[in-house]
Amino acid sequence: MVISLGRTLVALGIVGLLLLFEPSRAIAADGPVSAPPTASVEQALTQVASEDESIRQAAIRLLIEQGDAGLLPRLEAIRANASRSIRQAIKPLMDLLKNRAKLASPDSDVRRSAATDLGSSGNPSAIAWLDAAKVNESNKWVRYTIEESAALLRLASGDPSLKVAAAEKLGELRSGNAVPALKALVEAGAVAEATEQQKVLAKTADAAIDRIETWGDWANAIETIFRGISLSSILLIMSLGLAIVFGLMGVINMAHGELMMVGAYATFVTQQCFTAWFPPDVFDWYFPVALPVAFLAAAGSGFLLETTVIRFLYGRPLETMLATWGVSLVLMQAARVYFGDLTAVVAPGPLRGGAQVLVGVYLPYNRIFIIALSIVCVLGIYFALFKSNLGLRVRAVTQNRNMSACLGIPTRKVDSYTFAFGSGLAGIAGWALTMVGNVDPGLGQNYIVDAFMVVVTGGVGKLAGTIVASLGIGGLNKLIEPGLGAVYGKVLILVMVILFLQWRPSGLFAMKGRDAD
Amino acid sequence: MSDGTTDTNRSGGLGFAVVGAILLVVMPLLNLLPPEDSWFHLSDFSLNRFGKFLAFAILALGLDLIWGYTGILSLGQGVFFGLGAYCMGMHMMLTIGKESVYGSDMPDFMVWNQVKELPFFWKPFYSFPAAVIGALLVPMAFALVFGFFAFRSRIKGVYFAIITQALALAAWLVFNRNDTNLGGTNGLTDFKQVLGYRLSEPGTQRALYVITVLCLGASYLLCQWIIRSRAGRVLVAVRDSEKRVVFSGYTPANYKLFVFVVSAGLAGLAGLLYAPQVGIITPAQIGVLPSLEMVIWVAVGGRGSLAGAVIGAVSVNYGRSVLTNYFPELWPFMLGGLFVLVVLLFPDGMVGMIRKGKDLLTRRKAGEEKPIVPNQKVVVPEGKR
Q: Residue A7: pLDDT band by 50, 70, 90 thresholds?
């Protein structure tokens, strides 16, 4: 029964994942084919290799104005035979031409990086190219970068009115890249012999810096919150399985982290199988395929662990902790011996990189994915626990084991399936964690103590407790981190958990009831 | 599980005397008298190593007191051990003086980290008595504060184990930092002398060994005295059914706090003796893993038996030092397997097995079928409250 619910969950996960995969983009050629070079360009091409500094400079200027990417192979050939000083002179020219061609690339990331490079090249002739490219640009963030780069170039130009406008524009754009240049202008305006123009410019620049920095604080705050939510969802996925088992059987499974490790290694093995046996263009599919593999591998290990060890320790939770810790040691060492220390999973294409949502706020896809996954997991577990027959039984046994047994619920079976299900959730957590770190034998240990704390703080038997506790602990962790550092943040959280337990000894959402032993 | 009094009452006195004599007199004499190539000779290294095991045994006694007798699983004993060891280590760092690599009065790692002035909390440790008292009192004070909050709010069972494990993790993180001025990852090492005696001299190590044996004996007697007192009976009662203790008019929290503080003190004493004998103390000795390993010493020896704790600490550590020497990759398998096996099959550890064997023998001698009285507490699922 649990297995079938697990299957539903797996299916849900796969569907969610499929939504993330967009149709793959075609890989484009590098810029349009150019017209044959005119005579003046031909002449410049020969002069570029001249030993005379002034002739060479003139030729390069001309090539910048009239040349295009079609000249690159020829320039490359000239460069190959030229002396060191000529090579150094030609290099920036080639970079400019290359980036100019890239501005027309169909890949927005390429366009964007070309615009950035042009902005930092300091060559004023690029302003015209950028302005031209801006007209046809449809992508919001590429347009932003083009504007930013153009403004940066104008800021570096000679015309004072252009400079003031550029400084204003950069402030409007909240461009973090412009701060050093703006600061230099402010300093230039502060010296005693500064001209009136310089002073005006300095004032504008100062206002722009103010805007940029205020925005930077906001962006930081948003990213901190995002990181907190991301850590929370990792903790949540990990703690869900732990908490359900703890609620049901009163057992903390110290090997939970190692079951995650099993899931992570299952993902790794799936990846290796794909590279070995399948063509490279379906490689990205290893990741969705690895989800059921990881779930089943971890659930199987958990089932085995329950039937061989935990079953015999019923009613002795402390001993169970110790025994499962022994198992975790064995599993960890086995992984270390078999897989070695460093194995990593390559993220599938759609999960690489990130999305820019605001200026200076960049959210990596893998983190977004984990947040989404945690939501899917919570929903899946909610349905499993509250809308299914088996969930009813699990809840009944959690509330009163003896009474449930009297009513004919096979409590041992419920234990065993639930434990396997909880372990499977650990496997899913491991599967997801391969996206944010290496697959190594210590993978489970990194977060496991935090996950235990979540379970303790959240209380037994209520899903809401686990969710709130992982949000609280994960969020606080990241909130404290910038101020106090990760280590003292952890210490502070421990203190807070202890103080919290003064107030609520059995967690956030304790079950009410009376019993005596 | 025994009720904690039987095994020490009858033949306890004689056994204590015999083992004490062997540890205190015979072992050092075997090290001192026979020529080096003799079969009976005990090398300086072996004696020193054994001294380390006996220091661990002191810690195991404390852990047995709290886990075996009171039923509270503390996974943070490594922290108390570390506090004791660091107190002693700080004293010995300061007595290195100009002999250090950089020839400065400051400890080497501070010179390295460009700390100009000795941090205030290092200053008391110039004095040897202060270091010894600190090694005992700092862990006890820490346990008092931590335990007060934990037991007051009735954190128990699995909850307490997890909180103490988090404590071990937090302590490990803090000791690893360089800015706490405790030596960072490398810890405290390169000790030269204690009270003017060179640590490199075999005589000093022999003396440290003898002191360790004496401390172990004293700790043993202290624990035995606690267990046999009225308070000890309350502790066992808390283990077996805390609610009934409450109903009988006792306050379990006070007893638990008391035993937690005592066990922390014993762990601190163990650390105090460990640091000069081993010559190094690093955060690696106080984290989550070492703290859990300490529990297995008691489990293997036999929880709820003081002799068991000592036997367990010595035998597991001996096994560890032999096995990590020959098969370093196998040790985690052995340790993990040991945990599972002991918990599943031998819940009373070695002492329990010996006792069972003895029972079988006496019954056979008596030639009668005595009913086997299960020496177990009523199993109550603790998770279901």
A: low
